[in-house]
Amino acid sequence: MTYRLGVDVGGTFTDILLIDEETGQTYRAKTSSTPQDQSIGVLRGIERVCEVAGADPTEITSVYHGTTVATNAILEGKGAKVGLVTTHGFRQVLQIARSFVPGGLAGWIIWPKPEPLAALENTVEVKGRIAADGSVVDKLDEDDVRAQLAKLRTAGIEALSVSLINSYANAEHERRVGEIAAEELPGVPVSLSSSVLPELREYERTITTVANAAVQPQVKLYTANLASKLREGGLTGKLSILRSDGGLVSADAAADNPVSLLLSGPAGGVTGATWVAEQAGFSDFLTFDMGGTSTDVALVQNLTPRIGRETNVGDLKVRATSVDVRTVGAGGGSIAHVPALTQALRVGPQSAGASPGPAAYGNGGTEPTVTDANVVLGYLPTELAGGEISLDRDASRAAVKSIADATGLGSVEAAAAGIIDIVNENMFGALRLVSVQQGFDPRDFALVAFGGAGPLHANALGKLTGAWPVIIPPSPGVLCAYGDATTNLRDEAVRTLVRRFSEFTDESLRALLTELGDKARGTLVDQEVDEADVRVVYSADLRYHGQGFEIPVEVDIDAFTGDGAGLGSLRAAFDVEHQRLFSFVLDNEHEVVTIRATAHGPRPQVASAQLAEGGTDPSAALRDTTRIWVEGGEVEAGVYERSKLLAGNVVTGPAIVTEMDSTTLVLPGHAAAVHASGSLLIRPVAETAEPITEN
């Protein structure tokens, strides 16, 4: 018997999912995260899930891990001390940056500009120059390179980044600087922009390379430490890390290119949600992942997550391929507060985190959080995470009472309802960013809600967005770990061209794409993937000639048959996307800026659960009744045990559905139908269809 293990480390909880590769049966565990050393929480969770499954750690063949190590290093300002090598005359590339200031009117007055990840005093210039066409204008002065690196050695840098002008067109100078750095700065990891991001635009390429260098030591140390402790615990399976674009890479490859991991955690959730929605028969949906610290949302169309070319973490924006996820500081641990200046109730982005956590956890927390509001309203049971966490209702009421007193709302319940309404609106705003702002009507999509806190707020978000049904997956609290365990190996090869369509033929562009595809395919073959199982997809960043930005468009390489049909289809696809985004098209000639090939390994075969048929009556799963506060008053709600629900059961609200890792709230006027795959499909009662038992 063999198992596959998915691990997702969040700001509050560490989720573990063990999958029997023969039967598809899953086992789960949820433990508190250990920010001081994430591997402690991971190993504790693995030990617990193996006990539940009766499995031996030696039977685990693969460990798939979504991690926030790189993300936290950036957010907490704990990255390495980075040195930067630039071309002579470009030393202040990070200080000049882009002339964009966030915020509204007069934002430029109050916005504190973040410090660059590589300080100016740790930035040096070297003599040598590459032209935009890749030719050598000035030969690299190696003596000067050694002299400049000596300055950085004296400064005590911990990581080195090299970003020379036009190196995307010719990496010769960068590679040589890297070789010299290995001699002059032994033991210091080196990031070359021609390897990290071989694309146009000097600033974006430089900041991405510097970010890679800043997190590389921590990621390398973490992956090596985790791999070592897994071996000590008897796990000999291969460790793979989830990338921001939802694909997997080996731990060694992740340590070499950690900037691709900045959205590792959220990407796992989107991957897991895609698998669940497919089982329930839905291909277009929004994802809503609410954890203890933040909420991540994304849009998936035709079972394909929208992929962005930029990754945002805090004030940092880097050019790295990632699932187009938007994050807001709204989670179960988000703290409610009333600023003295405005006397208006606010929720987040500050979070109580895992320690001390919400007041309900009884670990010393006293500030009112979203979790405390849910406890006050009666939506949460007295125990979470399978009994690991017990909730203190009196502590929650005392915390929320401070909000009632500060706002004059009167009752504690009214204050708690206000907290929930505000956090729901915050999350609704994030969902609009990935739907309405991108030209999509959320009413054309379903809504997949997961994370430890997501199912509690899902029904309300369905009402706000009009996205039905709201899909609550089995084990929603560990879905990110499920996504980690059900995704595939992936690699990407990129080349910047900047050529008009008139400079191409179908044959010439197809040849360039094929070359990139072979390169990306080779990386997976090197990781022991059978070449016959590798699938390669292509895309291009296009623009009208004269535009200052590009739009990514999928490329159908089979359309490039030699008669111009390929370029014609590419032109038409770009015009359609431009029309959708901006409501107009231009007559300008089209231009190819960047092409890329992405190689996908085979997707793991995981058997999906099929529930037994049980009719519409869910009474066999009814455990209790309780009083909850909803719509301004108390009502009686049924409390159902999810593990006892059968396919076809319909749970009519108000109701609470409990399970080990999450709690689902069904509001009055709505009903949750149990799909044969195990998902709950929540709709308004008037729209609840006959129970669906097949896709």
UniProtKB/TrEMBL annotation:
Gene Ontology MF: a single term: 5-oxoprolinase (ATP-hydrolyzing) activity
Residues forming the Hydantoinase A/oxoprolinase domain are 205-491
Q: Which InterPro entries match?
A: ACX-like_C, ATPase_NBD, Hydant_A_N, Hydantoinase_A, Oxoprolinase-like
Q: Which organism is it from?
A: Lentzea fradiae
- Top-rank taxon, per record: Bacteria
Please state every residue range assigned to the domain named Hydantoinase/oxoprolinase N-terminal. Answer: 4-184
What GO biological process terms does the UniProt entry carry, in alphabetical order? glutathione metabolic process
Q: Which residues form the Acetophenone carboxylase-like C-terminal domain?
A: 507-671
* Pfam families linked: Hydant_A_C (PF19278), Hydant_A_N (PF05378), Hydantoinase_A (PF01968)
One Gene Ontology cellular component: cytosol
Q: What is this protein called?
A: N-methylhydantoinase A
